[in-house]
């Protein structure tokens, strides 16, 4: 009988220590997830390229049709897509529909790597640039995510950006 009492007391002590350690971990996690000064964490998704108001850096690229495109030529809509990227293929038809409305000269589609299906969909409505993931246009926009789309004003500043078409036109001024 004394062994049973000792085992129950030992088990109770181990359980109590485990509970204290768990509460300490929860408290630490709450402290790390709360921003300083009691504010709220931003609800905006992380940026994957240029922030609002920024301009793309200087670049020169050649479209799939052999046309030269410079940063100074770019205003309107710019979309970044990756080859064989399922979300890119989901977004591309919506991008193409909006490109038809805006006009081909105001739309650039950048496809990282070779994807004939994406190029065939976008080429009739956009100037398509096929380049590596570290290509000139990707670098000029500091783009690190696909699909990612930008809306640039006539002054070439980013008016809206996001991973969905709704991100462009819900944030853009009327």
TrEMBL record:
Q: Where does the record place the Thioredoxin domain?
A: 50-174
Q: Which PROSITE patterns match?
A: THIOREDOXIN_2
**What domain of life is recorded for the organism?**
Bacteria
Its protein name is Thioredoxin domain-containing protein
**Lineage of the species this protein comes from:** Bacteria, Bacillati, Actinomycetota, Actinomycetes, Kitasatosporales
């Amino acid at each position: 009988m004394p062994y049973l009492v000792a085992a129950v007391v030992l088990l109770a002590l181990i359980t109590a220590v485990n509970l204290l350690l768990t509460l300490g971990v929860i408290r630490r996690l709450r402290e790390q997830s709360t921003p300083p000064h009691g504010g709220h964490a931003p609800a905006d998704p992380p940026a994957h390229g240029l922030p609002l108001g920024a301009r793309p850096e200087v670049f020169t690229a050649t479209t799939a049709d052999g046309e030269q495109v410079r940063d100074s030529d770019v205003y309107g809509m710019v979309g970044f897509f990756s080859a064989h990227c399922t979300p890119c293929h989901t977004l591309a038809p919506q991008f193409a529909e909006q490109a038809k409305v805006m006009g081909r000269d105001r739309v650039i589609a950048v496809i990282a790597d070779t994807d004939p299906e994406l190029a065939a969909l976008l080429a009739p409505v956009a100037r398509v640039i096929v380049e590596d993931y570290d290509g000139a246009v990707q670098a000029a926009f500091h783009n690190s995510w696909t699909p990612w789309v930008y809306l640039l004003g006539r002054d070439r500043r980013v008016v809206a950006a996001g991973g969905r078409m709704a991100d462009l036109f819900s944030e853009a001024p009327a």
